[in-house]
Protein backbone atom coordinates (compact mmCIF):
# COMPACT_ATOMS: atom_id res chain seq x y z
CA UNK A 1 0.00 0.00 0.00
CA UNK A 2 1.33 3.43 -0.93
CA UNK A 3 1.32 5.60 2.19
CA UNK A 4 1.02 9.34 1.54
CA UNK A 5 2.65 12.09 3.54
CA UNK A 6 0.30 14.41 5.42
CA UNK A 7 0.80 18.16 5.06
CA UNK A 8 -1.77 19.18 7.64
CA UNK A 9 -4.55 17.97 9.89
CA UNK A 10 -6.90 20.90 10.19
CA UNK A 11 -9.26 20.68 13.13
CA UNK A 12 -12.50 22.62 13.63
CA UNK A 13 -12.86 23.21 9.91
CA UNK A 14 -16.21 24.60 8.74
CA UNK A 15 -15.44 24.70 5.02
CA UNK A 16 -15.03 21.10 3.95
CA UNK A 17 -18.45 19.56 4.43
CA UNK A 18 -21.28 19.71 6.97
CA UNK A 19 -20.74 20.58 10.63
CA UNK A 20 -17.44 20.80 12.46
CA UNK A 21 -14.83 18.73 10.69
CA UNK A 22 -11.27 17.59 10.79
CA UNK A 23 -9.67 17.82 7.36
CA UNK A 24 -6.74 15.59 6.47
CA UNK A 25 -4.55 16.99 3.71
CA UNK A 26 -2.62 14.26 1.87
CA UNK A 27 0.45 15.19 -0.18
CA UNK A 28 0.50 14.31 -3.87
CA UNK A 29 -1.69 14.98 -6.91
CA UNK A 30 -1.40 13.83 -10.54
CA UNK A 31 -3.14 16.96 -11.88
CA UNK A 32 -1.25 20.19 -12.43
CA UNK A 33 -3.71 23.04 -11.95
CA UNK A 34 -1.61 26.18 -12.44
CA UNK A 35 -3.81 28.18 -10.03
CA UNK A 36 -3.46 25.65 -7.18
CA UNK A 37 -3.46 27.48 -3.84
CA UNK A 38 -2.05 24.49 -1.98
CA UNK A 39 1.17 23.92 -3.92
CA UNK A 40 2.66 22.05 -0.97
CA UNK A 41 0.22 19.20 -1.69
CA UNK A 42 1.17 18.75 -5.36
CA UNK A 43 4.43 16.81 -5.06
CA UNK A 44 4.06 13.53 -3.18
CA UNK A 45 7.63 13.76 -1.93
CA UNK A 46 8.80 15.51 1.20
CA UNK A 47 10.09 19.06 0.70
CA UNK A 48 10.79 22.08 2.85
CA UNK A 49 9.75 25.70 3.19
CA UNK A 50 12.50 28.28 3.45
CA UNK A 51 11.47 31.56 5.15
CA UNK A 52 14.16 34.16 4.37
CA UNK A 53 12.86 36.58 7.03
CA UNK A 54 13.74 34.09 9.77
CA UNK A 55 17.21 33.33 8.44
CA UNK A 56 20.08 34.76 10.50
CA UNK A 57 22.77 33.58 8.10
CA UNK A 58 24.43 31.25 10.61
CA UNK A 59 25.48 28.80 7.89
CA UNK A 60 24.53 25.63 9.77
CA UNK A 61 22.44 24.43 6.81
CA UNK A 62 25.35 25.01 4.45
CA UNK A 63 27.62 22.85 6.56
CA UNK A 64 25.30 19.83 6.67
CA UNK A 65 23.97 19.80 3.09
CA UNK A 66 25.42 16.89 1.09
CA UNK A 67 24.30 18.42 -2.20
CA UNK A 68 25.77 21.91 -1.88
CA UNK A 69 22.42 23.58 -2.47
CA UNK A 70 22.99 26.58 -0.20
CA UNK A 71 25.64 29.24 0.07
CA UNK A 72 26.02 32.26 2.29
CA UNK A 73 25.93 35.62 0.58
CA UNK A 74 26.98 38.83 2.33
CA UNK A 75 24.80 41.76 1.31
CA UNK A 76 25.51 45.49 1.30
CA UNK A 77 22.93 46.06 4.08
CA UNK A 78 25.26 44.16 6.39
CA UNK A 79 23.09 41.04 6.53
CA UNK A 80 24.16 37.59 5.50
CA UNK A 81 21.59 35.48 3.74
CA UNK A 82 21.30 32.14 2.07
CA UNK A 83 21.19 31.64 -1.65
CA UNK A 84 19.39 28.39 -2.30
CA UNK A 85 19.31 26.31 -5.47
CA UNK A 86 17.24 23.17 -4.91
CA UNK A 87 18.05 21.53 -8.25
CA UNK A 88 20.20 18.82 -6.69
CA UNK A 89 18.39 18.62 -3.35
CA UNK A 90 18.28 15.04 -2.08
CA UNK A 91 15.43 15.75 0.36
CA UNK A 92 17.44 14.46 3.29
CA UNK A 93 16.10 17.28 5.50
CA UNK A 94 19.40 17.65 7.34
CA UNK A 95 19.26 21.39 6.79
CA UNK A 96 15.89 21.60 8.52
CA UNK A 97 17.20 19.69 11.52
CA UNK A 98 20.27 21.94 11.67
CA UNK A 99 18.38 25.25 11.49
CA UNK A 100 17.78 26.73 14.95
CA UNK A 101 15.53 29.61 13.89
CA UNK A 102 12.89 27.61 12.02
CA UNK A 103 13.83 29.35 8.81
CA UNK A 104 13.37 25.92 7.24
CA UNK A 105 10.49 23.59 7.98
CA UNK A 106 9.50 20.21 6.60
CA UNK A 107 6.42 19.89 4.41
CA UNK A 108 4.88 16.42 4.66
CA UNK A 109 4.88 14.21 7.74
CA UNK A 110 4.82 10.45 7.74
CA UNK A 111 1.68 9.23 9.49
CA UNK A 112 0.02 5.83 9.56
CA UNK A 113 -3.73 5.29 9.35
CA UNK A 114 -3.63 4.64 13.11
CA UNK A 115 -1.84 7.96 13.77
CA UNK A 116 -4.45 9.88 11.79
CA UNK A 117 -7.33 8.00 13.40
CA UNK A 118 -6.03 8.79 16.90
CA UNK A 119 -5.97 12.49 16.11
CA UNK A 120 -9.23 12.59 14.17
CA UNK A 121 -11.26 10.58 16.65
CA UNK A 122 -10.23 12.82 19.54
CA UNK A 123 -12.79 15.34 18.23
CA UNK A 124 -15.65 12.83 17.88
CA UNK A 125 -17.82 14.73 20.37
CA UNK A 126 -17.69 17.84 18.17
CA UNK A 127 -18.67 15.80 15.12
CA UNK A 128 -21.64 14.29 16.94
CA UNK A 129 -22.89 17.61 18.27
CA UNK A 130 -22.52 19.53 15.01
CA UNK A 131 -23.37 16.87 12.43
CA UNK A 132 -19.75 17.04 11.29
CA UNK A 133 -17.05 14.47 10.65
CA UNK A 134 -13.78 13.98 8.83
CA UNK A 135 -12.87 15.13 5.33
CA UNK A 136 -10.04 13.46 3.44
CA UNK A 137 -8.52 16.03 1.12
CA UNK A 138 -5.29 16.82 -0.60
CA UNK A 139 -3.58 16.87 -2.88
CA UNK A 140 -5.66 14.07 -4.27
CA UNK A 141 -6.81 11.30 -1.89
CA UNK A 142 -7.46 8.91 -4.78
CA UNK A 143 -3.78 9.10 -5.70
CA UNK A 144 -3.48 6.76 -2.68
CA UNK A 145 -6.57 4.59 -3.13
CA UNK A 146 -5.80 1.76 -0.70
CA UNK A 147 -4.75 4.15 2.05
CA UNK A 148 -7.80 6.34 1.53
CA UNK A 149 -10.10 3.33 1.45
CA UNK A 150 -8.61 2.01 4.69
CA UNK A 151 -8.75 5.38 6.46
CA UNK A 152 -12.31 6.05 5.31
CA UNK A 153 -13.31 2.50 6.29
CA UNK A 154 -11.93 2.83 9.83
CA UNK A 155 -13.59 6.20 10.33
CA UNK A 156 -16.87 4.91 8.94
CA UNK A 157 -16.71 1.88 11.24
CA UNK A 158 -16.21 4.26 14.18
CA UNK A 159 -19.46 6.01 13.25
CA UNK A 160 -17.81 9.13 11.82
CA UNK A 161 -19.28 10.92 8.79
CA UNK A 162 -16.64 10.73 6.05
CA UNK A 163 -16.28 13.17 3.16
CA UNK A 164 -13.69 13.04 0.45
CA UNK A 165 -12.52 15.98 -1.68
CA UNK A 166 -11.42 14.65 -5.03
CA UNK A 167 -11.14 15.42 -8.71
CA UNK A 168 -12.40 11.86 -9.41
CA UNK A 169 -9.47 11.44 -11.79
CA UNK A 170 -8.82 7.64 -11.77
CA UNK A 171 -9.07 5.95 -15.13
CA UNK A 172 -10.23 2.68 -13.61
CA UNK A 173 -13.72 3.05 -12.26
CA UNK A 174 -13.18 0.45 -9.52
CA UNK A 175 -11.00 2.88 -7.56
CA UNK A 176 -13.87 5.26 -6.96
CA UNK A 177 -16.43 2.46 -6.74
CA UNK A 178 -14.51 0.88 -3.87
CA UNK A 179 -15.28 3.92 -1.70
CA UNK A 180 -19.04 3.86 -2.10
CA UNK A 181 -19.67 1.94 1.10
CA UNK A 182 -17.30 3.95 3.31
CA UNK A 183 -17.66 7.55 2.09
CA UNK A 184 -20.77 9.53 3.03
CA UNK A 185 -20.11 12.56 0.87
CA UNK A 186 -18.13 12.94 -2.36
CA UNK A 187 -17.04 16.54 -2.96
CA UNK A 188 -15.98 16.53 -6.59
CA UNK A 189 -13.88 19.30 -8.06
CA UNK A 190 -15.06 19.94 -11.63
CA UNK A 191 -12.51 22.32 -13.09
CA UNK A 192 -13.76 22.47 -16.68
CA UNK A 193 -16.15 20.70 -19.01
CA UNK A 194 -14.00 21.46 -22.03
CA UNK A 195 -11.95 18.31 -22.78
CA UNK A 196 -9.25 20.18 -24.70
CA UNK A 197 -8.66 22.80 -22.02
CA UNK A 198 -8.82 20.19 -19.30
CA UNK A 199 -6.08 18.16 -20.90
CA UNK A 200 -3.89 21.02 -22.09
CA UNK A 201 -3.99 23.12 -18.92
CA UNK A 202 -4.42 20.55 -16.16
CA UNK A 203 -2.65 17.66 -17.85
CA UNK A 204 -5.38 15.10 -17.32
CA UNK A 205 -8.26 13.95 -19.56
CA UNK A 206 -11.80 14.93 -18.65
CA UNK A 207 -13.43 11.68 -19.81
CA UNK A 208 -12.51 9.47 -16.80
CA UNK A 209 -13.64 12.21 -14.42
CA UNK A 210 -17.08 12.37 -16.04
CA UNK A 211 -17.30 8.57 -16.18
CA UNK A 212 -16.60 8.39 -12.43
CA UNK A 213 -19.14 11.10 -11.75
CA UNK A 214 -21.78 9.26 -13.74
CA UNK A 215 -20.99 6.12 -11.77
CA UNK A 216 -21.48 8.06 -8.50
CA UNK A 217 -24.79 9.46 -9.74
CA UNK A 218 -25.99 6.02 -10.85
CA UNK A 219 -25.03 4.56 -7.47
CA UNK A 220 -27.06 7.21 -5.65
CA UNK A 221 -23.98 8.58 -3.85
CA UNK A 222 -24.15 11.89 -2.00
CA UNK A 223 -22.30 14.25 -4.37
CA UNK A 224 -21.46 17.95 -4.09
CA UNK A 225 -19.72 19.71 -6.94
CA UNK A 226 -16.95 22.25 -6.41
CA UNK A 227 -16.27 24.63 -9.26
CA UNK A 228 -13.13 26.74 -8.86
CA UNK A 229 -13.78 29.86 -10.93
CA UNK A 230 -10.50 30.74 -12.58
CA UNK A 231 -10.11 33.97 -14.58
CA UNK A 232 -9.42 33.24 -18.22
CA UNK A 233 -9.77 29.49 -17.79
CA UNK A 234 -13.37 28.56 -17.04
CA UNK A 235 -15.27 31.83 -16.62
CA UNK A 236 -16.48 32.53 -20.16
CA UNK A 237 -20.20 32.40 -21.12
CA UNK A 238 -19.47 29.16 -23.00
CA UNK A 239 -17.93 27.63 -19.87
CA UNK A 240 -20.90 28.71 -17.76
CA UNK A 241 -23.36 27.30 -20.31
CA UNK A 242 -21.55 23.96 -20.27
CA UNK A 243 -21.74 23.79 -16.46
CA UNK A 244 -25.42 24.72 -16.45
CA UNK A 245 -26.31 22.18 -19.15
CA UNK A 246 -24.37 19.32 -17.60
CA UNK A 247 -25.13 19.89 -13.92
CA UNK A 248 -28.68 21.08 -14.58
CA UNK A 249 -29.52 17.83 -16.34
CA UNK A 250 -28.32 15.91 -13.28
CA UNK A 251 -29.74 18.21 -10.61
CA UNK A 252 -31.60 15.42 -8.85
CA UNK A 253 -28.35 13.54 -8.25
CA UNK A 254 -26.40 16.51 -6.88
CA UNK A 255 -26.65 17.70 -3.28
CA UNK A 256 -25.27 21.13 -4.08
CA UNK A 257 -22.80 23.17 -6.08
CA UNK A 258 -20.15 25.38 -4.48
CA UNK A 259 -18.67 28.16 -6.61
CA UNK A 260 -15.21 28.92 -5.30
CA UNK A 261 -13.69 32.10 -6.64
CA UNK A 262 -10.03 32.16 -7.56
CA UNK A 263 -7.70 33.76 -5.02
CA UNK A 264 -3.95 34.00 -4.89
CA UNK A 265 -3.46 33.40 -1.15
CA UNK A 266 -1.17 30.49 -1.99
CA UNK A 267 1.35 32.63 -3.85
CA UNK A 268 3.61 33.01 -0.82
CA UNK A 269 3.82 29.25 -0.46
CA UNK A 270 5.21 28.93 -3.99
CA UNK A 271 8.00 31.30 -2.93
CA UNK A 272 8.73 29.43 0.30
CA UNK A 273 8.91 26.17 -1.68
CA UNK A 274 11.28 27.70 -4.22
CA UNK A 275 8.71 27.47 -7.00
CA UNK A 276 7.81 31.10 -7.66
CA UNK A 277 8.66 30.64 -11.33
CA UNK A 278 5.88 28.08 -11.77
CA UNK A 279 3.11 30.36 -10.46
CA UNK A 280 1.32 31.98 -13.40
CA UNK A 281 -1.37 33.86 -11.47
CA UNK A 282 0.71 36.50 -9.74
CA UNK A 283 -1.22 39.79 -9.78
CA UNK A 284 -4.45 38.19 -11.03
CA UNK A 285 -7.34 39.55 -8.99
CA UNK A 286 -10.18 37.65 -7.43
CA UNK A 287 -13.22 37.98 -9.71
CA UNK A 288 -15.97 40.28 -8.38
CA UNK A 289 -19.26 38.75 -7.23
CA UNK A 290 -20.99 40.14 -10.34
CA UNK A 291 -18.91 37.80 -12.47
CA UNK A 292 -20.00 34.71 -10.54
CA UNK A 293 -23.67 35.51 -10.02
CA UNK A 294 -24.94 34.67 -13.54
CA UNK A 295 -23.64 31.13 -13.10
CA UNK A 296 -25.02 30.91 -9.55
CA UNK A 297 -28.42 32.07 -10.71
CA UNK A 298 -28.54 29.81 -13.76
CA UNK A 299 -27.63 26.77 -11.70
CA UNK A 300 -30.21 27.67 -9.10
CA UNK A 301 -32.83 28.02 -11.83
CA UNK A 302 -32.08 24.41 -12.76
CA UNK A 303 -33.03 23.35 -9.24
CA UNK A 304 -29.54 23.13 -7.78
CA UNK A 305 -28.59 24.40 -4.31
CA UNK A 306 -25.70 26.79 -4.77
CA UNK A 307 -23.19 28.49 -2.51
CA UNK A 308 -20.72 31.14 -3.56
CA UNK A 309 -17.30 31.23 -1.96
CA UNK A 310 -18.46 28.80 0.70
CA UNK A 311 -20.47 31.63 2.23
CA UNK A 312 -24.18 31.42 2.76
CA UNK A 313 -26.35 33.79 0.80
CA UNK A 314 -23.89 36.36 -0.49
CA UNK A 315 -26.29 39.18 -1.08
CA UNK A 316 -25.10 42.73 -1.21
CA UNK A 317 -26.24 45.88 -2.90
CA UNK A 318 -23.77 45.46 -5.71
CA UNK A 319 -24.87 41.99 -6.77
CA UNK A 320 -27.88 41.58 -8.97
CA UNK A 321 -29.49 39.02 -6.71
CA UNK A 322 -33.12 39.28 -5.75
CA UNK A 323 -34.92 37.74 -2.78
CA UNK A 324 -35.57 34.66 -4.89
CA UNK A 325 -31.86 34.13 -5.33
CA UNK A 326 -31.02 33.25 -1.73
CA UNK A 327 -28.35 30.65 -1.87
CA UNK A 328 -28.14 27.62 0.33
CA UNK A 329 -25.81 26.26 2.95
CA UNK A 330 -23.32 23.42 2.53
CA UNK A 331 -25.07 20.16 3.45
S1 LIG B 1 17.13 18.63 2.18
FE1 LIG B 1 18.18 19.30 0.30
S2 LIG B 1 18.92 21.34 0.82
FE2 LIG B 1 18.47 20.34 2.77
S3 LIG B 1 20.38 19.37 3.43
FE3 LIG B 1 19.25 17.83 2.28
S4 LIG B 1 20.00 18.00 0.18
FE4 LIG B 1 20.61 19.89 1.27
S1 LIG C 1 20.55 27.23 9.38
FE1 LIG C 1 18.66 28.41 9.25
S2 LIG C 1 19.15 30.45 10.04
FE2 LIG C 1 21.10 29.39 9.62
S3 LIG C 1 21.65 30.06 7.55
FE3 LIG C 1 20.51 28.14 7.34
S4 LIG C 1 18.38 28.74 7.04
FE4 LIG C 1 19.47 30.54 7.82
TrEMBL record:
Radical SAM core domain span: 15-302
Checking Pfam families in the record gives: Fer4 (PF00037), Radical_SAM (PF04055)
4Fe-4S ferredoxin-type domain: residues covered: 46-75, 80-109
This protein's source sits in the domain of life called: Bacteria
Residues that span the membrane, as ranges? none
Gene3D superfamilies linked to this entry:
3.30.70.20, Aldolase class I (3.20.20.70)
Keyword field: 4Fe-4S, Iron, Iron-sulfur, Metal-binding, Oxidoreductase, S-adenosyl-L-methionine
Give the required cofactors: [4Fe-4S] cluster
The EC number(s) given in the record are 1.97.1.4
Cross-referenced PANTHER family: PYRUVATE FORMATE-LYASE 2-ACTIVATING ENZYME, PYRUVATE FORMATE-LYASE-ACTIVATING ENZYME
Q: Which family does it belong to?
A: Belongs to the organic radical-activating enzymes family.
What this protein is called in its record is: Benzylsuccinate synthase activating enzyme
Q: What is the lineage of its organism?
A: Bacteria, Pseudomonadati, Pseudomonadota, Betaproteobacteria, Rhodocyclales
Amino acid sequence: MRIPLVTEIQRFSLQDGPGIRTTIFLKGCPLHCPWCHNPETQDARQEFYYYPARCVGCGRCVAVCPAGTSRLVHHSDGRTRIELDRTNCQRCMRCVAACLTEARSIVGQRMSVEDILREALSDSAFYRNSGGGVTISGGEPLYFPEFTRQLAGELHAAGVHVAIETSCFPKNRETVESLLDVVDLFIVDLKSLDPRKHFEVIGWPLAPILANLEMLFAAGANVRIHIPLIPGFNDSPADFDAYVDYLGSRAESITGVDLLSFHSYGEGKYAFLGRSDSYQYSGVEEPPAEKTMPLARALKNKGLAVTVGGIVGIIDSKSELTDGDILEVHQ
